[in-house]
Amino acid sequence: MLFFGPDGERQPERDVRERKAKAICAQCPVRNECLDYALSRPEKYGTWGGLNEDERASERRRRMRRAASAGISAA
């Protein structure tokens, strides 16, 4: 259960689990595709493409801002 935490998981255990999952993701040849998949859907839990839930939420916002600025400059 490296990519999804169990119910009641405490923060220190979560940190260790996520670090191990991210190490696997770092070597994965489909990491970018995995992340794109998770960002295009409401994947709220787990490690996807090397990012945890909070990191994916930040990445979604970053991509939305980038898309919005690209739309504004194209006008």
UniProtKB/TrEMBL annotation:
Annotated 4Fe-4S Wbl-type domain residues: 1-58
Annotated GO MF terms: 4 iron, 4 sulfur cluster binding; dinitrosyl-iron complex binding; DNA binding; metal ion binding; protein-disulfide reductase [NAD(P)H] activity
Organism: [Actinomadura] parvosata subsp. kistnae
Essential cofactor(s): [4Fe-4S] cluster
Residue segments, region Disordered: 48-75
Known function: Acts as a transcriptional regulator. Probably redox-responsive. The apo- but not holo-form probably binds DNA.
Homology family: Belongs to the WhiB family.
A GO-annotated cellular component: cytoplasm
Subcellular location: Cytoplasm
Classification lineage: Bacteria, Bacillati, Actinomycetota, Actinomycetes, Streptosporangiales
Keywords per UniProt: 4Fe-4S, Cytoplasm, Disulfide bond, DNA-binding, Iron, Iron-sulfur, Metal-binding, Transcription, Transcription regulation
Record text on cofactor binding: Binds 1 [4Fe-4S] cluster per subunit. Following nitrosylation of the [4Fe-4S] cluster binds 1 [4Fe-8(NO)] cluster per subunit.
Processing and modification events after translation: The Fe-S cluster can be nitrosylated by nitric oxide (NO). Upon Fe-S cluster removal intramolecular disulfide bonds are formed.
Name used for this protein in its record: Transcriptional regulator WhiB
Primary site of residence: cytoplasm
An example Gene Ontology biological process: cell redox homeostasis
